[in-house]
Design goal:
With 365 residues, the chain is an alpha/beta fold. The protein folds into 2 domains: 163 residues, Glycogen Phosphorylase B (Rossmann fold); 182 residues, Rossmann fold (3-Layer(aba) Sandwich). Helix content is 44%, strand content 16%. The protein contains 15 helices and 13 strands. A 7-stranded parallel beta sheet has the order 3-2-1-4-5-6-7, with helices on both faces. Strands 10-9-8-11-12-13 form a 6-stranded parallel beta sheet, with helices on both faces. Strand 11, helix 11 and strand 12 form a beta-alpha-beta unit. Helix 7 packs across helix 10. The model has no long low-confidence stretch (mean pLDDT 91).
Length: 365
């Protein structure tokens, strides 16, 4: 059995593809799985790190602001289509699965023309342009959020599966993780992050929260700044002559997000599709601050799905205010019952293993 996974650019596209590949390997250990991406995306490093081979094609995203730049985009697309055809002819896959990002376009379209079975997975509540264009070329459109269905023309093709999340998030045990991380059982643990590179506006507000929470008994704050902002954050605290107590933990990045989510009580973060899915699977209440700088404002819709159910609090960046957020946070710290209720809503919102559902629809037996 041969499978091509294609998707790239960000971890939000790549990790679901890896989770699906892992599920196929679990069911069919002899399956040959090849990833196809671009040299510029995170897939270049993430895919090999997870044990899969990868090939690259030439393709770039459409430039909505500078239309003349798209001359090169169309040239890249033609080249990418030729490269995609060569890979497909050489590898001869039984199925092609796309998980988002413009790299999916050439591979899925050419595979469909060659009579190869094709599928796509859309992680966001508001679909990306690539997947909306590809729906006519695939058997099924797997959805990370049910709300995405109304944005596709061929709704009969859509299947709500949830977002494939790595098994570590399902297996996390809060009590055991706290022992591993040397966190007291009854401490209130707050985790904040803004993505791998961080988010400047969120970091600015988190500095105020760190200052407020510093020294409070039985409260631990893990402030993940992003590698890009880490040195500036430390420098800013020094310049303000703020000495933080030992309950404030400032880190540039976390490799094991499954452990951090599993051990915490509350999350403050952006609302990328994969982040929201990992939060849901981990059963964690959250304060979600969507990035205003993404196509289609899809992070807002991802957050709204969970906030409408009561599992999260949605705060748009334009409304972000340190004093109000601290007030909300302190109420939550002092009312564990509200936290517990939000956690139950999150857990109830988690679908069964998305990768298992997707695998069943692939009919690979």
């Amino acid at each position: 059995m041969r499978v091509i996974m294609t998707g790239g650019g960000t971890g939000g596209h790549i990790y679901p593809a890896i989770a699906i590949a892992d599920k196929i390997k679990e069911k069919h250990p002899q399956a040959e799985i090849l990833f196809v991406g671009t040299q510029r995306g995170l897939e270049r490093t993430l895919v090999p790190q997870n044990g899969y081979p990868i090939r690259f094609i030439t393709v770039s995203g459409f430039n909505r602001k500078r239309l003349l730049k798209n001359i090169k985009v169309f040239r890249d697309l033609r080249k990418g289509m030729r490269e995609a055809k060569a890979i497909l002819r050489e590898f001869k896959p039984d199925v092609v699965i796309g998980t988002g990002g413009y790299v999916c376009g050439p591979i899925v379209r050419v595979a469909d023309r060659m009579g190869i079975r094709t599928f796509i997975h859309e992680q966001n509540a508001y679909p990306g342009i690539t997947n909306k264009l590809l729906e006519k070329h695939v058997e099924k459109v797997f959805l990370g959020f049910e709300d995405a269905k109304r944005h596709f023309k061929k709704q009969e093709k859509t299947v709500y599966t949830g977002n494939p999340v790595r098994r570590q998030f399902y297996e996390a045990d809060k009590a055991e993780l706290r022992k591993t991380l040397n966190i007291e059982r009854d401490d209130f643990v707050l985790l904040s992050f803004g993505g791998s590179q961080g988010a400047a506006k969120i970091n600015e507000i988190m500095m105020e929260i760190a200052t407020t929470l510093s020294g409070i008994d039985h409260v631990q704050f893990y402030f993940i700044t992003g590698k890009l902002h880490y040195d500036d954050i430390l420098k800013a605290f020094q310049e303000r002559r703020i000495e933080l107590k030992e309950n404030i933990h400032i880190l540039p990045y976390l490799d094991k997000m499954d452990q951090a989510l599993g051990a915490c009580d509350l999350v403050i973060s952006r609302s990328g599709a994969l982040t929201v899915s990992e939060i849901i699977v981990s059963g964690k209440p959250s304060i979600l601050i969507p990035s205003p700088n993404v196509t289609g404002n899809h992070q807002y819709y991802n957050a709204k799905v969970l906030s409408d159910k009561g599992g999260a609090i949605l705060v748009e960046e334009k409304d972000l205010d340190a004093e109000k957020l601290i007030e909300t946070l302190m109420k939550m710290i002092n009312n564990r019952e509200s936290i517990s209720q939000m956690a139950k809503i999150c857990s109830a919102s988690a679908p069964e293993s998305a990768s298992e559902i997707i695998y069943q629809y692939l009919n690979l037996n």
